[in-house]
Amino acid sequence: MRIVTAIPEMTRLVKERRDRGETVGLVPTMGFFHEGHLSLMRAARADNDFVVVSLFVNPTQFGPGEDFREYPRDLPRDMEMAAREGVDCIFHPRPEDMYPQPYLTYVEVGGITERLCGAHRPGHFRGVATVVAKLFHIIPAHRAYFGIKDAQQVRVIQKMVEDLNFDVEIVVCPTVREPDGLAMSSRNTYLGTEERRAATALYRSLRLAEDMVRGGERDVARVISAMRELLAAEPLVETEYVEAVDWKFLEPVSELRGEVLIALAARVGRARLIDNTLIRVE
Ligand code: AMP
Questions:
Q1: With a 6 A CB cut-off, is 157 part of the ligand 1 pocket?
Q2: DSSP assignment of the chain, as one string?
Q3: What is the pLDDT of residue 25?
């Protein structure tokens, strides 16, 4: 497995592969790998001849007062894990190369960035869209892999690809969970023992929503309030939002019909955790 830091070298390497007729898969990450990341790498490995994993803790997607500095980092461990998955190349650029100063150009996706995490993390999706657009230029891949755990991010990338005509297929992969249901996240390392136990409330509230829908409930307000009640029963969980939105434009719905995303964010200790379920109602 190769590790590349220089942007021109990364582009050259991928273009060489493409010229030979090979397919290229890209897995964008911020590192500190867990099974969620590995599942994307496995999907990319299965579909493509050449697999690149980008590892970059992107400063522009963190707001002031967020965890950019403390975000967990362990490059040697990540390299070992990626190598074990048969990844061909890790792209680990320097921040000063990704953002030459003064950096002036950003990608803004409107509409679908206004709610959910977008409403609580101003500028976050501008940072995400910008870095992913840059990665798509640096690494002209045939396919790029994203986890639905970050559902709003998936929609933002899909819309950006559609609106700006990026020639890349977006592959969406399911959420990988701990045995007790907690969605895997690099930020789970922030949780103390009691917080870790309390954090399962996020998953439990989503299962409750799914059970209610399965039982015939179609009223969004009732589902959301039952979820909020479950979350409120955990004093260590501070709910940020619980929302039901349509999957396409992430606009609020009042009735469960079609493809509905139920998404939530909560603080548990110093971790801000998100999770969601995509519900299809005929
Ligand atoms: P991150 O390093 O947290 O920015 O995540 C990199 C990619 O891994 C994103 O596409 C995430 O959606 C995806 N990812 C993170 N956690 C999970 C998970 N538990 N299951 C599946 N994919 C995940």
A1: no
A2: -EEE--HHHHHHHHHHHHHTT--EEEEEE-SS--HHHHHHHHHHHHH-SEEEEEE---GGGSPTTSSTTTS---HHHHHHHHHHTT--EEE---HHHHSPSSP-------STTSSTHHHHSTTHHHHHHHHHHHHHHHS--SEEEEEGGGHHHHHHHHHHHHHTT---EEEEEPPPB-TTSPBP-GGGGG--HHHHHHTHHHHHHHHHHHHHHHTT--BHHHHHHHHHHHHHT-TTEEEEEEEEEETTT--B-SB--EEEEEEEEEEETTEEEEEEEEEEE-
A3: 99
> What atom in ligand 1 is closest to the CA of residue 176?
20
Give the pLDDT score at 282. Answer: 84
Do residues 253 and 135 both lie within one domain? no
**Domain assignment present for 181:** no
Q: Structurally, how many domains does the chain consist of? A: 2
CATH number of the domain that residue 104 is part of: 3.40.50.620
Residues 145-174 pLDDT 10s:
999 999 999 999 999 999 999 999 999 999
Domain span at 38 = 2-173
Q: To test the ligand 1 pocket, which listed residue (149, 185, 273) has its Cβ within 8 A of the most ligand atoms?
A: 149
Q: Compute the distance from residue 210 Cα to the ligand 1 centre, in Å.
A: 22
Identify whether 200 is part of a domain. Answer: yes
Cα(146) to centroid(ligand 1), Å: 7
Q: Show which residues are catalytic.
A: 37
Whether 154 and 259 share a structural domain: no
pTM beyond 0.85: the answer is yes
**In this structure, which residue's CA is closest to atom 5 in ligand 1?**
29
Residues 156, 267: one domain? no
Q: Answer yes or no: is the C-beta of 187 below 6 A from any ligand 1 atom.
A: no
CATH number at residue 257: 3.30.1300.10
pLDDT band with cut points at 50, 70 and 90 for residue 189:
very high
Of all protein residues, the one whose alpha carbon is nearest to atom 10 of ligand 1 is 146
